[in-house]
Amino acid sequence: MAASMLCRRTAMLCRTLKGLSCSKTVLFADSQSGLLLQTASYNPKPLKLNIREPYIPDKDSEKTPEWQKTGRYDRKLFGRYGSASGIDPASLWPSHEKLDKLIAEENEWHPPLEVMLKSIEAKEKVESEKRLAKEKLIAANMAKMPKMIADWRREKRDTKSKLKEEKTRRAKLLAEARQRFGYAVDPRSPKFLEMVAELETEDKKKKKLMKRRLKEEQAAPPITPPASL
Question: I want to staple 85 with a disulfide (CB 3.0 to 4.6 A). Which of 81, 94, 108, 162 is the partner?
Fold first, then answer.
């Protein structure tokens, strides 16, 4: 009985497959519940390709892409189809302006050997001149070094001497203030500052008087001794 049922199902499947179109895909699977069939129809449109004749785009048509209207694409077509592309070979050469630009770029990035040698020679000459100038400057500075060291030491001694004199003057002023007021005075107090200004004024007057006397003595005629009898 099982064998007869399997035969009937096989015959039914064969009749179903014969009735289907060749363009339909059949998917089937056996299960306990029975036979599952699924068909999918796909009718693609025939692709119209003209393989025998070359494809030459119409540059006047709006449907033609812009990249097919360029000179680069023309060179590609002429390289593939030759004269059958209908492209004038003279139009593929660069214009005079473009050719001059290409030559200038070639000379800039790939100069001739003579130009490169001259450039290297000029660069070495400039570097040599810079090195000689630097060595000359170093030699001149080395020659000045003893005098510079002596000047630096003299300035250092003068600075040290001035600091010592200022310290002595400050101590003298503090002692003068202590003697005048009878107590130690803060050097930042108005009394101390007034006293310093007063002493500086008196000192200026003394220096001015001494200068005047010295000038009068130099201007006075020399005293001639009396003649001996």
Answer: 81
Contact 13, 27 (CB under 8 A): no
CA 63/CA 77 separation, integer angstroms: 19
pLDDT tens readout for residues 65-104: 999 888 889 989 888 888 888 888 888 888 889 889 988 8
Instruction: For CA atoms 21, 22, 24, 30, give the dihedral sign.
Output: positive
What residue spans of the chain are helical by DSSP H? 2-19, 71-81, 96-109, 113-181, 190-219
Q: Over the stretch 1-47, which tens digit does the pLDDT of each residue have?
A: 555 666 677 777 666 655 544 444 444 445 444 444 455 566 777 76
Distances (CA, A) of 144 to 68, 138, 141: 77, 10, 5
Give Cα 104 distance to the centre of its chain. Answer: 27
CB crowding 3-19: b at 16 or more within 10 Å, else e: eeeeeeeeeeeeeeeee
pTM of the model: 0.35
